[in-house]
Amino acid sequence: MTAENTPLTSSSTIGTWLSHPVGGPIMNDLLAKAGQDASALRTVSKLSLDRLVEMSQGAFSQELIDDLVRRAAAGEVPEGTPAVVVTDDAEPAVQTPEWVERIDDGRFSGKTIIVTGAGSGIGRATASRIAREGGRVVAVDISQERLDDFVAKTPGADIVTVVADITDDQAVAQIIAAAGDRIDGLANIAGIMDDMTPVGDVSDDVWKRVFSINVDGTMKLMRAVMPTMLGQAHGSIVNTASEAALRGSAAGAAYTASKHAVAGLTKSSAFMYGPSGIRVNAVAPGPTITNIEAKFGSKLGAERVRVGMSVMPEAVESDALAASITFLLSDDGVNVNGVILPSDGGWSVA
């Protein structure tokens, strides 16, 4: 069946839509009306179209997706939109095997792990994997609704939920109390993005809020788990850095500086506490499908960050980051300490 005759559905990948002689013009017309082009979807081209409903935070509604499918089925190519040329002799793209999560039964048996940001995205994927591998999870999030949904969709797991703001000392104390006498690991995953503004445009409010959550919250929980981990003479902490901790072109001044601070906090703590049996590492995610929304509050920031994103690899599901984080949290990472591990599909080497 040729590309032209292939029926498009909401389950078809975004890349399939963009390269289709009918779907391509429809998608490009829609993007153009929003001031975008096909490059805005390049990093998620392998995802199905219906995933845009979940990941776009309202930009793509289910009604809009249904309408796109209807228009494609009817062949409604927008007037004046150039057709996509598909040739039979075009060289096929290399199809890499799809990664499949492999659960290691019992890897976290008998262990208690605190996971922040556990209601969604990378935090939820990490908490879910730990629970499915036998661990007791103290799942922390600012949303009770998200935590309730997580528990409901992880039946039979040992999960203690705590609704907490990680920047608040009293809330941090509640998290430690919920963990109890044993804390084997801490996954500091909760965080927020900035508005991509360079230092000349960044506001005090953005700077303070980003640092409060990304740096202060991370530090407060690290500090809080230390007495228990020191008493046990073991423990593993994994912080969430970012591609922005490794380069200057991935975000605005506030987020970039905050993630560089997380990297420094990680390395200092690894050096200080390594002889005490405590490993401290960080994962630096690349493009990942999460509920953290990137906004551009500066024309200069938008222009420059998009240059850096031009070599960004395709976005991955949160499960792929959870695989990296749980490796460092587990005993499999026994000989790894003080590392900022890029889990970015190779973006950091571009």
Supply the key terms:
350 residues, alpha/beta, 2 domains, 11 helices
Count of all domains: 2
Helix % is 25-40%
CATH architecture of the largest domain: 3-Layer(aba) Sandwich
Q: Point out poorly predicted stretches.
A: 83-92
Trace the largest sheet across and list its strands: 3-2-1-4-5-6-7
Supply the CATH class of the largest domain.
Answer: Alpha Beta
- CATH homologous superfamily designation of the largest domain: NAD(P)-binding Rossmann-like Domain
**What do the pLDDT scores average to?**
85
Number of helices: 11
Q: What's the SSE pattern? A: HHHHEHEHEHEHEHEHHE
Q: Can you tell me the CATH topology of the largest domain?
A: Rossmann fold
The end-to-end distance, rounded to whole angstroms, is: 37 Å
Question: Approximately how much beta-strand content do the residues carry?
Answer: 5-15%
Question: Outline, from the CA principal axes?
Answer: globular
Cα-based radius of gyration, to the nearest Å: 22 Å
Oligomer: single chain
In this structure, how is the largest beta sheet organized?
Answer: 7 strands, parallel
Number of strands: 7
